[in-house]
Amino acid sequence: MLTGVVAARDQRLGMARLADGGRVTYALTGTGPFLLVAPGRLSHLELGWAIPAERVFHESLSSGRALVRYDRPGCGLSDAYDGPRTMELELATIASPSASREDAFPCVEKCSARPTCSGAPDPSSAVSPPPTASATTATPERQA
Length: 144
Prior knowledge:
Layout: E1 12-17, E2 23-29, E3 34-37, H1 45-50, H2 52-61, E4 66-70, H3 87-99, H4 107-113, H5 133-136
Parallel strand pairs: 3-4
Antiparallel strand pairs: 1-2, 2-4
């Protein structure tokens, strides 16, 4: 019996519009609850899928889930973009595939409300940080 073998999956590409009219390309693989994977600095959904090691990695992540990947504006299959890279742009990019689908990604509402997602602690309920090492380290007393 083989273990760790993942059945080959196909990625389904889609396009979504940003508020400025630019289009973002996203890929869905598998079915189930959504798992969003943010791309690195540069990405290309089709070329990445053609690399065997990368494809096996993404197929593994999509086991029992709907894996969502996307090309950021100005990268890969998405439209060209030369504007500023901001958190607002990133959140709009993540939200755009969700807005074009009936079964919206559950994280989008949380992300739009605040920049922390998926059960991250609410900053208002944070506990004070522990004292620094210098504040807790005793200094030896001098003996006369």
